[in-house]
Automatic annotation (TrEMBL):
Statement: the UniProt record of this protein carries the keyword Magnesium: no
Subunit structure comment from the entry: Component of the Mediator complex.
Protein name, per record: Mediator of RNA polymerase II transcription subunit 11
Gene Ontology terms: cellular component: mediator complex
Highest taxon above the source species: Eukaryota
Main localization category: nucleus
Keywords, comma-separated and alphabetical: Activator, Nucleus, Transcription, Transcription regulation
Gene3D superfamilies: 1.10.287.3490
Segments of this protein annotated with the region Disordered: 36-56
Any one GO molecular function term: transcription coregulator activity
GO biological process per UniProt: regulation of transcription by RNA polymerase II
Subcellular location: Nucleus
One family name in Pfam for this protein: Med11
Length: 161
């Protein structure tokens, strides 16, 4: 049996359809999240909010629709990837993963000082205490001013009594 050739236009239509499915997936997810809230429609003040069982049922239904659409879209995307691999447009994922792993390993060897390069963290930390010292001085000065004003206030009340 001869394999059927699929035109590029057909592939583009399939990808466009998958793109529309992504919108539906997001709508199902949004509806499921809204079902979790006690008042799913805050603009409608006349209708009473649905009871807990109705919200649970709606959440389960919307979640089921979302996961079904997600599985369908994943399968369709996977078929598109396989077709691109067969056509030689992209390489198999295993080869790409192996190359990516070796690139990451090479990049990790190039890292110096945890990715900070020549930046000396000890130098930064030694200067970091200056802020604490300045703030401590301000607090001591405020405490002294407060103590002086309290002593003046106590001295004035003793002299008038």
């Amino acid at each position: 049996m001869a394999q059927q050739q699929i035109s590029p236009a057909s592939r583009i239509r399939d990808l466009s359809s998958i793109n529309e499915d992504l919108t539906a997936i997001l709508q199902y997810a949004s509806a499921a999240i809204h079902a979790l809230s006690p008042n799913p429609d805050p603009t409608n003040t006349e209708a009473p909010p649905p009871n807990l069982d109705a919200r649970k049922s709606d959440f389960e239904t919307q979640s089921r629709h979302m996961f079904t659409a997600l599985q369908s879209g994943t399968a369709r995307l996977r078929r598109q990837v396989y077709a691109l691999e067969e056509a030689g447009v992209i390489t198999a994922q295993a080869n790409m993963a192996a190359a990516t792993g070796s690139q990451q390993q090479g990049e990790a060897e190039k890292l110096v000082n945890g990715g900070l390069g020549g930046l000396d963290v000890g130098w930064l930390n030694s200067r970091g205490n200056r802020v604490g010292g300045v703030k401590e001085g301000e607090l001591i000065e405020e405490a002294q001013d407060l103590a002086r004003s309290e002593l003046r206030g106590a001295g004035e009340t003793e002299g008038t009594g």
